[in-house]
Amino acid sequence: MMRIFLADISATRKLGITLAQSLNAGNVILLEGDLGAGKTTLVQGIGEGLGITDPIVSPTFTLINEYTQGRLPLYHLDLYRLESNQVPALNLETYWEGIEVTPGIVAIEWAERMPYKPDSYLSVRLSYGDEKTRQMEITPHNCVLSEEIVTRRM
After folding, report:
1. Helix, coil or strand: residue 87
2. Angle between helices 9-21 and 39-49 (to 10 degrees)
């Protein structure tokens, strides 16, 4: 696990941009953290880093937003309104396995509600620091992170 301290919302977005540059089709990012901790901001940065120009908004009510015009498609999911027993009906594996969609990046907010996980993913936990700062803990599971992410200072 690596811990990154983020000075402000801009640093969170910039880290997303940097992270996007090292992502490949099929990568899954499972995001956890309190409301307002920066999950959507990080995904917005990932979208920007992928070259997506559409506004990236939290899919809290739509559950899934698909952005297909970047370097790779970005599938942004939000499980906030769901109970764990409702999640299997979404067939999330179709996104990370690229079964019915073009393989891309899958970013899932409120991933702690998932009763199952893919074989390979990045676990990202965001939390509040003091004042406007944030802290991010990134743990790769059966995957590796770019050295640039590991050594980057925000």
Report:
1. helix
2. 40
